[in-house]
Specification:
This is ArsR family transcriptional regulator. The chain is α/β, with parallel strands linked by helices. It folds into two domains: 77 residues, Arc Repressor Mutant, subunit A (Orthogonal Bundle); 176 residues, Endonuclease, Chain A (2-Layer Sandwich). 47% of the residues lie in helices and 17% in strands. It has eleven helices and twelve strands. The chain has an eight-stranded mixed β-sheet, sandwiched between helices. Strands 1-2 form a two-stranded antiparallel ribbon. It is elongated.
């Protein structure tokens, strides 16, 4: 497939204006006349007319039979790309320190779905939210785990939820360091493992850790050393954010390998 970068650059140029982006955003909500847009934007009519003309020639907007401007399909698609760019720009410092090269492109292209999440910036806040996901689960808990926290704040709610019928699926990093208490914890959970209420898989590479229940999600990316940095996390209950995490978990689950206990490294 040949990519005409020169043509693409021209289209980027047409939307590289705050006012033109605002026009596209406004027209995504309703149709507007030129005079209405000028008033809404607090700009002069000639200025808005010039920007409308550029957007119309590029195919992003059109004037309908009623004399109002509206978005074309192309304009709607461009508008859909803005959250992707906004999410990355607003977190640019974070992503300079947290590579995404292990995330499949199809999920990177959906980064706009993460826009409405909240970023936590301390281990205490991240682990508290993580524990909260376990405590609030009613149907399931899904995990992709780099390191496994085998302390009471995490194991107690897991045991309680399993007793209430919550199902758990976990993908373990096969080189994860686990504590010496793991054997005792696994022994307590054995009946749930045997019954299939706990299902486990393994992976050789983790592009991101996710912890989610049916409503809440937590997303953690690795740092430049390839280790999950739990000092930062994107969290929230937004539907699109949850859908991204849910889909990413399922993609990882179906690409994981069967769980083998002896592969885990003991600390």
């Amino acid at each position: 497939m040949n990519h005409n970068l020169e043509d693409y650059a021209k289209y980027f140029l047409e939307v590289s204006s705050e006012q033109r982006l605002k026009i596209i955003q406004l027209l995504s909500q309703k149709e507007y006349r030129l005079s209405e847009l000028a008033k809404k934007l607090d700009a002069t009519t000639p200025e808005v007319h010039r920007n409308l003309d550029r957007l119309e020639k590029s195919g992003f907007i059109m004037k309908n039979l009623g004399g109002n401007f509206e978005l074309t399909t192309l304009g709607q698609m461009v508008l859909g790309l803005i959250p992707n760019l906004a999410f990355v720009i607003e977190n640019k410092k974070y992503f300079l320190e947290h590579p995404i090269n292990s995330i499949p492109h199809k999920f990177v292209s959906r980064f706009g779905e993460l826009y409405e999440c909240k970023k936590l910036q301390s281990y205490v806040d991240v682990f508290e939210y993580w524990k909260n996901i376990y405590e609030n689960s009613e149907e399931y808990i899904y995990n992709i785990l780099y390191d496994v926290p085998y302390f009471d704040d995490f194991t107690k709610p897991i045991h309680e939820k399993l007793s209430q019928g919550v199902k758990i699926k976990s993908i373990f990093y096969e080189k994860a360091m686990v504590s010496s208490t793991r054997g005792e914890v696994v022994k307590k959970l054995k009946k749930f493992i045997d019954s299939g209420d706990i299902q486990r898989m393994m992976t050789r590479k983790i592009g991101a850790a996710v912890i989610l229940n049916e409503k809440q999600s937590c997303l953690i990316f690795p740092n430049t050393e390839g280790k999950l940095d739990a000092g930062y996390a994107f969290v929230g209950e937004d539907f699109l954010f949850h859908q991204w995490c849910f889909d990413y978990f399922n993609y990882s689950w179906y690409n994981a390998t069967p769980f083998v206990e002896k592969r885990l490294e003991k600390s």
